Each structure stands twice: as structure tokens, then as C-alpha cells.
Amino acid sequence: MQHLTNRAKPVDRKPMTALEKLYLWNIAKGMWITLKHIFKRKATINFPEQRREFSPVFRGLQVLNRDAEGRENCTACGLCAVACPAEAITMEAAERQPGEEHLYREEKYAAKYEINMLRCIFCGLCEEACPKDAVYLSETFAPSNYQRKGFIYGKEDLLIPHPKLEPEAYQQALGTRAKRQEKASSN
Amino acid sequence: MGKKLLIDRVGIEGIRYFDTYRKHGGYASVEKAFKMAPADIVEEIKKSGLRGRGGAGFPTGMKWSFLAKPEGVPRYLVCNADESEPGTFKDRYLMEFIPHLLIEGLVVSSFALGSNRTFIYIRGEYAWIVDILEQAIEEARQNGFLGNNILNSGFDCEIYVQRGAGAYICGEETALLESLEGKRGNPRIKPPFPAVKGLWDSPTVVNNVETLAAVVPIINMGGDAYSQIGIGKSTGTKLISACGNINRPGVYEIDMTISVEEFVYSDEYCGGIPNGKKLKACIPGGSSVPILPANLLFKTAKGEKRMMTYESLADGGFQTGSMMGSGGFIVLDEDQCVVRHTLTLARFYRHESCGQCSPCREGTGWMEKILNNIEYGRGKMNDIDLLWDIQRRIEGNTICPLGDAAAWPVAAAIRHFRDEFEWHVLNPEESQKRNYGLANYAEPREVVAS
Amino acid sequence: MPKIFIDNTSYEVKAGKNVLEACLTLGFDLPYFCWHPAMGSVGACRQCAVKVYKDENDTSGKIIMSCMEGVRDGMHLSIDDKAAKAFREQVIEWLMTNHPHDCPVCDEGGSCHLQDMTVMTGHDYRRYDYKKRTYVNQYLGPFIHHEMNRCIQCYRCVRFYKDYAGGKDLNVFAAHNHVYFGREKDGTLESPFSGNLAEVCPTGVFTDKTLRQHYTRKWDLTSAPSVCQHCSVGCNTIAGERYGGLRNIVNRYNAEVNGYFLCDRGRFGYEFVNSENRITKPQVMHQAVDENALMHHLETVLTNHSLIGIGSPRASMESNFALLDLVGKENFFCGVYNEEMMLERRITDILDSGKIPVASLKQIEDADAVVILGEDIWNTAPMMALAVRQSVMKTGGREATEKTPMPEWHELAVKELQQNTKGFMVNVTVTETSLDEIASLNINAAPDDIARLGFAIANHIHPSLELKNFEEAVLAKAKTIADELLKCSNPVIITGTSCYNDPVLRAAFDIAAALKAAGKAPAIAFVVPECNSMGLAMMRGHAFDTAVRRVNREPNVTAVILEQDLYRNLPAGIVDEFLSKCRNIIVLDSLNNATTEKAHVLIPASTFAEGDGTLISYEGRAQRYYQVYVPDNKYIRESWKWLSRMKMIISGKANGHDPHHDSVISSLETALRQFAGISAAAPSSGFSIHGEQIPREPHRYSGRTAMLANRNVSEPKPVADGDSPLSFTMEGYQGTPPSSAIPFFWKPGWNSPQAVNKYQQEIGGDLIGGNPGVRLFVKSSGNMPEFFKDYPEHFRERQNKWLLLPQSHVFGSDELSVYSAGIAGRSPEPYMGLSPVDAKMLDVTEGSQVTIKSEKEEYSFPVKIVESLRNGIVLVSKGLPGTQGMSWGNWVELAK
After folding, report:
1. What is the pLDDT of residue B258?
2. Same domain for C486 and C595
3. Is the pLDDT of residue C451 over 60?
4. Which residues of B173-206 are buried (b: 16+ CB within 10 A; e: fewer)?
5. Which residue in C528, C497, C504 sits closest to C447, CA to CA?
6. According to the 3-state scheme, what is the secondary structure of C859-873?
7. Which of B213, B209, B240 is nearest to B226 (CA)?
8. How many Cβ atoms from other residues are within 10 Å of residue A41's Cβ?
């Protein structure tokens, strides 16, 4: 028989000696490994008091974006929903009426926009598919909830704060994205 | 001094009126023709070797012989006076100063083709000429050369003048017929050809003003005699409307035996370039034919003298030659900018595209925008290749020839004056202040775009 | 069959087609815009370029437009040629120079031919970086949204609207790269076929305005094959649903019926499904009850009472049969006005004899002559009028191209040759109609005179009777018509019930019979009022009169009234009398109306969108419509399910389960042999392909795990459909389903309605597997039909009495479609038409109110003076508010 890897080692089936049967040496070996870790850096952190820094490509909760004037970017084209491998996004389109130009950037908008966060796999394909820079994955992740219903995120949960009315919250929601965008535009 | 057959009598005072015209030999051809059989007249035209003067140069006799003659269906002759090509104004001259020559030609041609109702479709902007023509028609009718039973021959003929509404495309024969029928002037798809199904579903011949006027001398002198004038297949005389940077702009009748150089510099014709400037380029046959740089204008690529004939002007194809076209001879001196000139033409063709087929509708607009950018110092180097690419794809791929007409000037300008385009792109600021001047055209460049 | 070589492989193709059609039929993906299978080629877009070689040795070749070149034997061409491909890509780039990048907000996105073609040519990078041209859009009425910036100038819209459908108010304006397609000024598109612009337009210039109000992408719709409910033609449609509401209706190709098009009534008349007026809960004595209480109550009213059922002309065959099954054949009555029922009986008798075949719309299109007797088909069967128009135009084209041969697809050239040549069409109607303008001969006459003319024509073609007291003028007209008909080979005679006149039907039959005797191949079409009028008539239920007599005689009757408003079809007096005498009234319907108000037990029935059923069109074509979606409201069920449930109650076999569709259809087949073969209209519910069902949702359907999450986080199990081979999910067989069960047209690379190309045997031809529907009237043996001999007397005016006839309206005369706001907005105010002489005699002018008095009712309408109307006739708008239940075809009194 050909071995699948070259690391295969035949098992030694020799009966153990009396000394070996005391397991002293093996216990000492095990203890040594354990003791060694006391002096190493901790692998865990104390969440939520402590938080890890995310990688720049971390994909967290979706955010529905607004433009600089605070108008919703989303036109309810449905491309994020069709791209979603978990089929977790659904929306209903509506037509912008005269007088609503300050609310929505284009002639259509999402009257309803829902993401089932229990289904979402945070793959980022929605962000990829969006032609309007309207949905992107932020650096926060879904908080725990007592009820499964709480994981159905509607527009009110997803929309980014208004940049003019709540500038601080807006900047916070943008996170490092603002910096990245700046960097991208300066390049 | 070349022979003049058409506008020789223009200088005579009052030639616009029937009496004077008649006194000077007018309507003799009608009298002669009405003694002949219609088929014989067509035969005479065939013998004369007369070629369509509208631009394509198709033998007129041949066109006439294609006319279907089904029983019980009227046949129509339509005179195409929708002369709208920039640089061409020979028909206007002819109609304005010697209208009876056209009427005479129309009566003879109508008789030859059996058209009892003949139409002159005239360019809308030639409003005042409509009055001249209508007056001439009225005079001819009163003198028995039009109306019922002309010269007791039993042949009836009426001529109607219809004004166009200002579209260049209506000079294309099928679009003209659509427009004449009162429809939108979109070119028809051929076949069926007008000679079979033309105006109102009837066999129709559409001829240019000058072609129909040339019928008069052909009948008067005989087809054989007419075919002796000129060189080879370029028989007879041709009206050339010369304009641009020349000392003597105007309409000239040439007998197609002179050289281009003679035509430009002879005092009898253009009289050379004013202010001692140098010749830069010339469009020999109306705005849609390829522009020729000075070195290729007087001599063909083979080094032969270029003559003012259909064949010689076209020598070298579009690489190094041009076309007789409609005889609009536009001369550019060293102070002219080829880019600007091409832009002007591109704008014209964009505006005149009927909007039916995609290449012409979208391509012409795009070319205009690119040329506009290059001209105003916003061009990029690859714009020139793009321009080349667009024109190449338009040419030959449209329903009617307007696409070709729009593509050729651009192609020729890039082919012969690519340096100037590049200079415009590379020197955006300088190009706004001065012109490129004479091109470095010693070696015409072969442009092959991706 | 010519052999052509495409990229050096040889293929056999059909002669007389153009290269584009041949390539598409062979399955090649060749992009195109301006060409349309129903409208031919004009060569405007230059998109379908291929390279053609002189022979196999020619290597340079020439770029040509494949739509403008006919196939020739031994032709060598290349689709994959580099230059041709580059040119096609260039054309897209040209078109894209001015096309906005607004796909995200465009309604066409996802079902856009331009998107498909752009991807097909491989064009991805645009070198044009200038401003795009813009236009001002127009208001085009309630059906069509206009967005001119998206236009790629293929000219299809005007070619369809003007040339194909004969509309006058859409045109092309301006020139060069600023061509504008629209109306002269803002305003409603007048043609009743304007909705097709949304499908004809290869991009988003013309889109469905009603869809826009509840917009859903094509890939998100749950769709099912359906059949139009708004007239007797039976056009095939696809109905789409999302979030529990019907979103749109689009065309479902059927080469023998509606082809590529629908009328606006059919396309936009779907909104009654989403109406506020829907019956949502069972009611007993106007009190909403639950199912148990309902069943309990039903048990008491169904047992120990004698049952009668009133069948409906707009309910499915299944429901009507379930009712018949419940009440028994002898207790089954038709909820149709007596006069109308007699006519329908005559029609079924004629068609049953099978002596003259029924004309499908396709046959009407291909007919070389058409005679219309007494039916305003423009208003009663709009798609048939469109087919007649095609017959007239095509015949004209054929005549013109006889002398100068020109292939049929070469649209502009054929038009040029054709000019004003038209095929022969006689339009004999009571008053002027919209088809008059294309008719060779228009005759307006009273119904009896129409019949007399018909008999005279028949007699000219084949003398079968003695004509007495016929005016010379009528005979002369008859002779001209007869002579023209004798020149034709496959004429079609169209008539219908609108005249409420039996002799007209007989005359129409006689003309067809005479033509058959003269060796022609005639066909006949009888237009009936409702979508299943023909099916109900074929059931041969008893007349409503007998039902009234029955309730007067028997005191203890429970009447089960199926999906209809009796007050609409019958005079109110009779209905009142009937309903007052019934002990119990059980009504099943989907919408509240005057009859449901009188119901003791009201049961919510499903509409076509929520249930399965089979309708029988005017040609006796049984066509299946499928449930589109499962409504949230569990009470909404097909009537046949409710009725079968009631049957179980009576027989005491109730098990709480609904019967399956298959079993209802098979018992219909066994019980009524005239419906034998109806089960073949659709595959049975057990049908599957490789063990897979046919999905109602495209594989790109989105939001499946999120749509219902707001109600229940646990994703519900998809509902199983026990009645059809279709599933309510996106999983299932992805290939081509059977032709009668195509829920949507889609093939890789073809997202737009143009994907139908891939479902056809040949382009513009039959669907793969044959066209949907089964024709129930079978052709009988070749023996000659017998002529009707009894022609009526000349129409005579009566003293102070007028013959009451209906004037139908495309928008408004149909009961259900007026629930759509757009259609309601376009329906006219009801009026009464009088001839000028009659108006003068009554001393009334345009607009004055006149009262109609029939036996029991009085109606009052403003007068409209109709020049073309005969004296002694009064026309009243049919089906509009206030004009229900009139005694059509009877003599009425008028008073100021």
C-alpha cells in the first residue's frame, strides 16, 4: 500500500515496560508543556472590556449609506439581493415623489430593505454588487440578542446616521472607511 | 479656352427670360427631340457618355434605360435640385441665371422617359430660385413648350417645383422620393430601386440639375459629338464651383481636358492663391470627398499629371486620390487649419444624419465631439486613433451613402494630415493661438489603426 | 432546403428566411435590435452584422447585415469572424454613447434586451467620454412610462404602434442623433395595444407603469403560465407575483393565439386581484365566520334542501363542473341572459358539427379575406381585431410582391411595394368601428339586415335558397363581396353574439358553408362575451328562466351561485325575483358585488392568480392557467375546491382534504363527453422531468430567506402544489418545460422577453412541443354542411319602440379589468346612441338625458348622436356603471 503522506509512521505495538507503565516521564513531559504557556503571551482577550483590532478588510454588519447631503444612496436595484448567496436580503422599491429629493439621491429608493442577519454570512458580495456605493460592510458585528426576531435588520437598523444632523454618529459609523476613502481618492 | 455648353450664354442680359433665351437658340433641342423616338433620345444620351453630375458619376444613359415601363403605370422624372453639399453651388448658379436651360432639359428628358409629370425637388434654402423657376415654367407653358400637347406632338408634360425642408439627406435619391411623397425623409432600402418602384410606387428617374441641363447640348450637337469632348470616359463639360482661398471664386465650366494645376492657377479659372500664400490642400469634389494635400493634388502618386476628369481625380483610390464628386472645388491655403476644417464638416454631417441607422447617427456625433476636443486643445493622442477607428467602422456599413460621406473627409484628413492632428494634441495652448501651417506632406503616411 | 455554411459547418435551413432568422433558429446567439420576428427587418440598427463570403475560397468576405440578406443555397458566412465581431461590438459602443448608465433605477433592468446584447457582443469598455444627449419625457397615460434618454433608436416602437397596430399618435420626430419617439404632445396613448411597447422596446424607454407602482425585478417574480380573463380570445399570459400581490402580466407566446402581443385590457386589467374589494372571509348572514362554522352551516343548508347551481361564464371549467357535480345535471343553470344563451347554444351546435373549422388568431392573420358580420371586435375581442389587421396588411403585401418578388421579412421593401394595397376585408356592423379604416367595404345596418346581406352573399357564392324581397342595392353589394371572396382561398368569417341576433350567426355560417361548397377552405370565428362563455355553453346547462320558474315552484331551494354578478348579466327584476324566492343563497366569488350582497353564505373564491383552472376560448381551445402564488389568506381557494368540499359534506365523506385538480379534470372528462381530451391541455400534477418539477421562480430569485423572516424567523417549508407540475420555489428543472407550462422565458444570456426565440421550433413559429391548448371542437368528416334557409325579414322601425343593442368598449365593458385604476380612467361615460333622425324625432340633442323603459327597469343616459346608426336602434354602452342587466336585443321605449 502506498502511503498518502510521508509523515505516516508505523505504530509501535511493543508492550510497555514496568517503568513506562508508571507514566512518570510522560506526566512530566505534559506538565512541562503546560508550564511553558504561563510565560507566553495570552491567546485570548477579555471581550467585551477588551477588543481586538480588526483587519482592514474585516467584514461586519451592513450599513446603508448616505451621500454627503444625507440622501440615501440605495435605489433598490436589487443587485445585492440577487448576489446574496444566503438569499438574506429583500427589498421593495418605491418611486421618489416630487419634494423628496432631499431624502433620496435617485428617482427610486428602497421603501423596505431587510437583511436576515441570522442567514447572512458576511461574504461582502452585496457590497461588491452595489453600483451605487449604497451598502457596505462595516467594522461592527451583530450583537447578541435574546430573540431571533431581533436579527431581522430593517432600514432603520441599517441606515447610516445623517451626516448633517448627526455628524458625530455619522463619522463613527464610517469608522476607518472615511480614512480609507480619503486615501483612495488622494491616490 | 475650353468649350462651354451650359453657361456660355449666362452673360447675355435677360437670358433668364424666355424671349431672350429663345432668341439665343433656346428650346431648339425640344424641337429636335420631339421629331425623334424617345428610345433614340436615350440612345443619344448613352452615346454621349454623359455621367451623372450629382456626385456618383453613374452613366445617365444607362440609368434611363433601366427605367421599367409597365403598362398603365405613370413614370416620373425627378430633378434633384437639393444641392446641399458644402462647397457645391453649381446647380444654384445654373438655375438662377439660366433657368430655361434646365426647363428645356427637363422637357426633353421627360419626353424621352415618358414622364408626364416631372418634379424639381429644390433645396429649401433656395427660396428665391423657386420663383425664378416657376416664372420660367410659366413662360415655357405659355409658349407651348409645357402643358398639353407640346409642339403638337401629343405629348403632355407638367413640371412642378417642390421645396425641400432643409435636410441634406433629402438629396439622397430615395430619401428625396420619400420627402416628395410627403413623408419623413429617411432613405429607403434598395432594392427595389427607384427605376422600378420610385415615386408613388411608379418607375422613377432621379437626375441632378446639371445632368438634365447637359441633355440640351447633347441633343443639339448629337451624342457622338458630345462624347468627343473630354478625356476617356469623362465626356462633355462639367460645372465646377470653386471656392476657398482662391483669387476668383465662382462657377466654371470645364471641358474635362485641363489639369488641376491649370484650373487652380490659370487666370481663366481660379486665378491662383491670394496674397502669395502657398496651397495647402484641396477638396476637389464637394465636402464629402477625400481632401488631397498639395503634393497629391497636381500629381498622382504615380507621378502623372492630375487632370480634371473623373478618372484622374480618383487615381490612387482613397489612399492617394479623391473624387470628382459634385464638383465643389474647395481650396485651402497654408493658413487654414485642417482640424478645424474637418470639424466643420463633421458637424455638418452629424447634423444632417437622418437618425435611422446606428453607425451614422451615433458615429457622426461622436466624431464631431472628438474633433471638437482636438481643435480646442482638449484632445488626447489616442483620440486620433479612435477617430480613425470610428470612421472606418461607419464606412460601408450604413443604409445610405451619408455615412460614407461623413467618414471619408475624416479619414482623408487623418491619412494626409496626421501630423497636424498630433500637433494639436501635443500643443494644446499653441494650437489655440496659431495654425500649424504647411504640413510635412512629402511622404504621405499610411495610417493603420488597430 | 438550402444548405448554408456557418463558420465552415454546414446547416440545413428553411428557404425564404433571412440569415438572422436562420442563425437564431439554429441556436446561434446573434445580437439584434430593430428586427422583430413579427415585424420583419428594416436594417436600421446594424447590430446583426456577419461576414459573407462569395464561395469557400473567398477569405476576405464582406460585412453584411444578416437581417437584410436572404438565405441562399451554398451560402458561406461567418459569425465568429473577427471583423464582424468587432463591428458588432462597435455598434453597441455607438448605441451606448448616448444610453444612460441608469440600469439600477431602470425598470427594464434584468429583463433588458440591450443589456443582453451588450454582454453578448462582449463590449465592456466605453471610449466615449462626452456628455450624453438628454430629452424631456412625456406623460403617455396610465399604462406606459416614458424615459426617452434610454432610447437606442431601433424604431421598433413606431413600427409596432403605427405599422403593426395602426395607432396614430406615436411617431418619430427630429433627426440625426436627436431623434425623438413619442407623441406630438403629452397625452394618453390612444391605441389599446400600447402596452406592447413595453415588450417591444429593447430597452427601458417604454415600461409598464402599473408595474412601476409596485416594482419588482423579473428575477424576483414568482410567475406562472396564465390565460387572460378579460375576453373570449384566451390570450396566453404570464402573471408575476411578489410579496403576496400580483405585480404584472406579460405576454406568453402562443403562435396560434396571441403570438407576441397582448391588448391593454389583458395586460393591465390584473389589478382586481389586489383589490380592496376582495372577499377575504367566509360570511354567513353577513357575519364573518371561520371554516368550522362555515362547514357546519353549509351542512344545514345543503342537506334537506333541493339544490340548484348557477354556472358562470367567467369561472373555470373545473369550478363549473364541480358545481354541476354538486347539484346534478338537471339542476345546473347558466347565469346568462336568455337571448345570449340561445345564441351561444347555436354557436356550439355549429362548431360541434365540425363542418366548418374554427379560425384561430393565427389563421385569421393568414387569411386572405375577412368578413366581419355584426361584431365590433375592436372592442369585444381586441386581439382578434389586431389579427384581422395583419390579415389585411399581409394579404396586401402578398399581392404587391406577386409581381416583384420580395421576401416577406423585408419589411420596408414590402411596404414600399405595397403602398396602399390592402387585403379584402368587409366590416358589416351596426355602427362605425375602429376597424373601418382598413376595411375594403364598410356597411352599417340593423342586425336583421346584416343577416340578410350575409344570406345574400352566401347565396351568390352557392345558390341554396330563394331570395325574396331583397333590395337591388343589397344584392349588388352581396355580389361584389361574393365575387371578391371567390378569388380567395382561405377566407375567414367572423361574427359574434353582440348583435343578439340568431340570423346573423346563421348567415355567417351560410357564407362559410357556401365558400366550402365553392372549394375554398373557409374558417369561422364566433366571438362570445366572457372568457369561459364557450365552456359554459358547451356544458349545456338550463336557461336561467327555468331556474326562476323552478324557485317559484319549489319553496325549499338552496341556490349555489358561482363567480358572477347576476345583476350584471340579467335584468334586475328577474334577478330580484329569483333571489327573493330562494330559501338559501350561497355565493362563491372573489370580489364583492350586487349579487354577493344578497348572499346568505358568501365564500371567498380565488382569482386566476390564486388558483388553477381551465378556460375554453372562442375557438373551443381549452387552456390551463396555473396558480401563481399561495395567498396568505387561507380562505381564498378555488371555487372547485369549495364546491367539492360541499359535495363531500352532502355525501358525508368529508375528510378535511381538498380534491386534486387531476381528479376534477378526469371526472369532468368522464361525466361530459364533449370535454374529452381537456386533460391534455396541461401536463398532470405528477409530471416531472428527471424527477424535478418546474420552478415558478427563476434561479436568481432573491431574498428567499429574508422575505418571510419578519413573520417567522424559521424559514417555512415551501408550499407543495398538488395541482400542477409547477413548484413554488426556485429549485427544479432548469431546461425547457412543456409548452403549456412555461412560467417565464429565460435562457442563459437571454433575460428579456426575446428569450422566447429559444423556446420556438423556428423563429416566429410554434413553440417546442406544440402550442399550448387543446381544441375541443373536432373536425368532422368531409360531407357538406347543410345550409340554414330561414332568413329574416327586412328590419322595420317600430312605432315608439327601439331595438336595444350594446356598444362595447375596450376599456370599461369588462367586469374585472375596471378594477385597474388605469382602465377605469380610460373607460368612457355611459351613453345612449341614437341615429340623427331618431334624435330629431324625439326632439333630443347631443347630451340630453333620455330614459329607457324596458319591462321592469328604467335607465337614463345622455344621448350621443351616431351618424352611422340606422333608425329604430338604440345603442347603450355595455357593462359600464348603470348599464348592467339591460335586456339587450329587445325592444324598449324611450322617453325624454
Report:
1. 87
2. no
3. yes
4. bbbbbbbbeeebbbbbbeebbbbbbbbebbbbbb
5. C504
6. EEEEEEECCCCCCCE
7. B213
8. 5
Helix (H, G, I), strand (E, B) or coil at C286: coil
ipTM for the complex? 0.86
Tell me the HSE value of C101 on the side-chain side, using a 13 A CA sphere.
10
The grid coordinates of residue B113 equal 422617359
Owning domain of residue B284: 234-333
B222 and B242 inside one domain: no
* C-alpha pair distances (Å), B203 with each of B109, B113, B246, C564, C599: 14, 10, 43, 62, 73
| CB contacts < 8 A (B, C) | 103
Give the separation between CA C413 and CA C407, rounded to whole angstroms: 9
Residue C293 has pLDDT above 90, yes or no: yes
Q: What are the backbone dihedrals phi and psi of residue B357, each rounded to the nearest 5 degrees, phi first?
A: -105, 150
Q: Which residues of C764-802 are buried (b: 16+ CB within 10 A; e: fewer)?
A: bebbeeebbbbbbbeeeeeeebebbeebbeebebeeeeb
Contact C596, C505 (CB under 8 A): no
Which of B353, B327, B335, B330 lies closest to B412, judged by CA? B330
C216 to A119: CB separation less than 8 angstroms, yes or no: no
Smallest CA–CA distance, residue C120 to chain B, in Å, is: 18
Question: Under a CB-based contact definition with an 8 Å cutoff, are residues C267 and C246 in contact?
Answer: no
Check residue C634 and give left, alpha or beta (phi > 0: left; psi -120 to 50: alpha).
alpha
Q: Are C119 and C9 in contact (CB under 8 A)?
A: no
What whole-number distance in Å separates Cα of residue C307 and Cα of residue C842? 48
Structural domain containing residue C480? 357-521
CA angle at residue C502 from C425 to C323, to 5 degrees? Answer: 110
**pLDDT at position B444 over 60:** no
What's the confidence (pLDDT) of residue B448? Answer: 43
**Are both C862 and C890 inside the same structural domain?**
yes
Q: Test C706 with A114 for CB contact under 8 angstroms.
A: yes
How far is CA C625 from its chain centroid? 13
Dihedrals phi, psi of B197, to nearest 5 degrees: -130, 100
Domain boundary assignment for chain A: 62-186
Which residues, 6 or more positions from C409, have their beta carbon under 8 angstroms from its beta carbon?
C17, C18, C21, C40, C41, C67
Name B329's bridge partners. Answer: B242
The reply to whether B179 touches chain C by the CB within 8 Å rule is: no
CB atoms within 10 A of CB C554: 14
Spatial CB neighbours of C93, under 8 Å, sequence gap ≥ 6: C123, C126, C127, C128
- With contact defined as beta carbons under 8 Å apart, do C38 and C764 qualify? yes
Residues of C engaging B, defined by a Cβ cutoff of 8 Å: 42-47, 49, 63, 68, 86-87, 90-91, 94-95, 97-98, 127-128, 130, 133, 152-153, 155, 172, 174-179, 404, 406, 410, 412-413, 416-417, 419
CB distance C618 to C525 below 8 Å? yes
Largest CA distance in chain A: 92
In the CATH scheme, what is the code of domain A62-186? 3.30.70.3270
pTM, two decimal places: 0.91
Question: Grid cell 385538480 — which residue?
Answer: C661
Q: Which three cell numbers stand for residue C265?
A: 385590457
Question: Final residue of a domain: which of C225, C251, C274?
Answer: C274
How confident is the model over B302-329, as a mean pLDDT? 86
Q: How far is CA C136 from CA B323, C133, C149, C178, C197, in A?
A: 43, 11, 8, 12, 19
- What is the three-class DSSP state of B258? coil
CB A94 within 8 A of CB A58: no
Higher local confidence (pLDDT), C420 or A27: A27
**CA of residue C463 relative to chain centroid, distance:** 37
Q: Would you tell me how many other CB atoms lie within 10 Å of the CB of residue C466?
A: 8
B444 lies in a domain?
Answer: no
